[in-house]
Write a structure and sequence with these properties.
The protein is of the alpha/beta class. A six-stranded mixed β-sheet has the order 8-7-6-9-5-12, with helices on both faces. A five-stranded mixed β-sheet has the order 2-1-3-13-4. Strands 10-11 form a two-stranded antiparallel sheet.
């Protein structure tokens, strides 16, 4: 890396494991960070994919893979900003007659966009674990894809103008949907100050009532701990500053270790603590970094994206991330 600190515009959400970094307690060697606050962080994904607006940016794993195949000149660090399992977070109308995953065939289901990570993971589970034919479900979306060149399968349709997934679910026009930001738990596209809490008060039932047990069993059997966000860096910067990837990885990792030290001591280190305690009960380390410890999840995401028409090729995991020797 050249002498003197370089200023980098960095967009990453507030997490317990990024707090020390964003608050300046952990320096990035050779870098003067300019942290740009984008809420919700998914709005930063779109800005990065379409305008390459930031130097370093958090991005959904699926969005990254799709955008990179489309030519976006960025490369990921093996730094993963959010993790969760995906047997939960998908609900059905009680009157829809959906009692098992196969019952979704012939019905309509809502997801914010086809490339939303939560959708990719859950659909992958439905297809690969339960034999669901995704093409026999009409998937309704009420947002555009981050990667505008993405061509969607014919069984993915946009909701009519003036309608929303939440409203269609309440009216019975769709019979199943993702909750929270991936579906009926938010209002409007992912712009700044995106509103949440749009899920109506109607009584919906989870597709998997025993989701936690299923998730734990699935992890023990497959080793897959799903990744959501990761960190990408503009290729031009990586080429110009040969020690930048290592400096960024070390700083993110040090911030993570400081968080985990407080987390393991039982301190209230962030609002995500309860979530990661539930994850830790299944996986041990709730926030593993590095390529090898995350290989099962990365390869599963690649496979699911290919199955769902989101990727044409099947890149090797090594080709998607900065070389381990650089981190």
């Amino acid at each position: 890396m050249s002498t003197g600190a370089i200023t980098l515009r960095i967009a990453v959400a507030d997490y317990g494991h990024t707090a020390a970094l964003k608050q300046g307690q952990v320096p990035i060697r050779g870098v003067a960070p300019d942290f740009v606050e984008v809420r919700p962080i998914v709005a930063a994904y779109r800005r990065m994919v379409r305008d390459l607006e930031f130097d370093v940016c958090e991005m959904a794993a699926g969005t990254y893979m799709i955008a990179r195949e489309a030519g976006l000149p960025v490369t990921a660090l093996p730094v993963f900003t959010y993790r969760r399992f995906h047997h939960s977070g998908f609900v059905c109308r009680a009157d829809a007659g959906i009692h098992s995953p196969k019952d979704l065939e012939g019905r309509k289901a809502g997801v914010r966009a086809w490339s939303v990570s939560t959708g990719i993971w859950t659909r992958g589970i439905l297809q690969n674990e339960y034999g669901v034919d995704l093409s026999r479900i009409t998937w309704m979306v009420d947002d555009e894809e981050h990667v505008q060149s993405l061509r969607l399968p014919p069984y993915v349709r946009q909701v009519p103008a003036g309608h929303s997934l939440a409203g269609m679910m309440a009216a019975g026009e769709i019979q199943a949907a993702f909750t929270d930001n991936a579906g009926i738990g938010r209002a409007g596209p992912p712009q700044e100050n995106w509103k949440t809490g749009a899920m109506p008060a109607a009584s919906y039932v989870p597709l998997f009532p025993d989701a936690q047990q299923l998730e734990a069993g699935w992890f023990r059997r497959t080793g897959i701990y799903p990744v959501h966000g990761l960190i990408v860096v503009r290729n031009a910067l990586l080429e110009q500053h040969d020690r930048l990837a290592q400096a960024l990885f070390e700083a993110f990792d040090e911030s993570r270790m400081r968080y985990l030290k407080r987390f393991e001591a039982g301190e209230n280190a962030s609002e995500q603590d309860d979530h990661y305690r539930r994850m830790a009960a299944i996986v041990g380390d709730p926030l593993p970094y590095g390529l090898e410890s995350n290989r099962p999840a990365i390869e599963a995401m690649i496979r699911y994206c290919r199955q769902q028409g989101l990727l044409k090729g099947s890149p090797a995991a090594e080709d998607l991330f900065v070389s381990p020797s650089a981190c």
